[in-house]
Amino acid sequence: MLQNLLKKFQCGERQALAKVISLIENESPLKEEILKDRYFSAGQAKIIGFTGSPGSGKSSLIDELVDLIRRGNETIGIVAVDPTSPFSGGALLGDRIRMQKHGLDKGVYIRSMGTRGNLGGLARSTKDVVKIMDAFGKDWVIVETVGVGQAEVDIMNVAHTTVLVLTPNTGDGIQTIKAGIMEIADIFAVNKSDLPGSDTLVVEIETMLNMKTTEKRWRPPVIQTSSLNGEGLGDLFAAINDHRNYLQENEIYKSMEKEQASTDTMDILEMRWRSYVCSQINNGGPVSHWLDQVLNRKMDPYTAATKILECLIKPETNDSSKF
Q1: Whole-number pLDDT of residue 289
Q2: Do 180 and 215 touch, CB atoms closer than 8 A?
């Protein structure tokens, strides 16, 4: 069954892509096998992240940007992270509604995902779904975060280029003097530029960039955009391509890919190690013994963690007589 599904996936069938994403999102036992099989097919897509506060117009901006990308006949995968419905547990699909004009375009695949309680602006499986769209052969993968605050910066670990969307008269000007999400932006898009205060917000962002003491070879451009009248969309597209070229010319892209591969491996290792330790708790062995020692305040958790590590790495120390 899985091999048949993967064969259809490799042949570019959209239904197979949808099925594979569902298996990954639902933490299917087949998830690991799928990701292992498709790992070497990924690594070619341009991954762009759009983040910003709720109501900043991220979806509408992406919708217009897709038009520009499609003029070059390149294919696009969109991962739109929405709030989770408290009733069904699924995504509320607000982003997908705003992008509906591309619903019939076979070169564009849109997938909405619920956060399912995950913090950071993304769903737990977003990174894996991006890899799958990449492996499917999409030239671009665009990730839109759920509406975020200043500390939700997970998108920087997924995207090659991060576009921070801000709007005038919503308090975003205050954010320019704060740490957090402002520091991860490769491009600033001051959206809804037809509203009053747009020019002021641009000045505030430029001032913030000028105040930075750390040297950064890439200076994030600040672009005024409006999905209503089309202002600045061409400039935004050009800035995204410029940043991609910058990463490649300075070999930063390769460095990012290596770092991401290392991070992915460590994340998997940490997850498996934690699962293994948890599985030992119910065995009545050394792990349970040292946890009981901490629970009864006969040992501090740091010493207990060291002993548990020694027990699991060196099985010969599992002899209960040595406790």
Answers
A1: 86
A2: no
Q: What is the mean pLDDT of residues 173-192?
A: 76
Q: Provide the greatest CA pair distance for the chain.
A: 77
List helix spans (H) across 77-162: 94-98, 126-136
Q: Are 118 and 148 in contact (CB under 8 A)?
A: no
Q: Residues 6 or more apart from 282 whose CB is under 8 A from it?
A: 288
Q: Is the pLDDT of residue 317 over 50?
A: no
What is the chain's Cα-based Rg? 23
Decide: helix, strand or coil at residue 256: helix
Compute the residue count for the chain: 323
Q: How far apart are CA 131 and CA 45, in angstroms?
A: 9
Query: What percentage of the chain reaches a pLDDT higher than 70?
Result: 82
Residues 233-238: contacts with CB within 8 Å, 24+ apart?
233/61, 233/64, 233/65, 233/68, 234/68, 236/61, 236/65, 236/163, 236/187, 236/189, 237/65, 237/68, 237/69
Sheet containing strand 46-52, edge to edge, reads 108-114, 76-82, 140-144, 46-52, 161-166, 187-190, 222-224
Answer whether 110's CB lies under 8 Å from 75's CB: no
Report which DSSP code applies to 213. Answer: -
Q: Given a cut of 90, is residue 74 above it in pLDDT? A: yes
CATH number (3.40.50.1820, 3.40.50.150, 3.40.50.10490, 3.40.50.300) of 42-250 reads 3.40.50.300
| Residue 320 pLDDT | 47
For residue 91, what is the DSSP state? B
Q: Reply yes or no on whether the pLDDT at 45 is more than 80.
A: yes
Domain boundaries, the chain: 1-41, 42-250, 260-322
User: Hey, is 140 helix, strand or coil?
Assistant: strand
Return the structure tokens found at 32.
């690991």
Rounded-to-integer distance, Cα 23 and Cα 230, Å:
38
What pLDDT digit, counting tens, does each position of 216-267 carry? 689 999 999 998 888 999 999 999 999 999 999 988 888 888 888 898 899 8
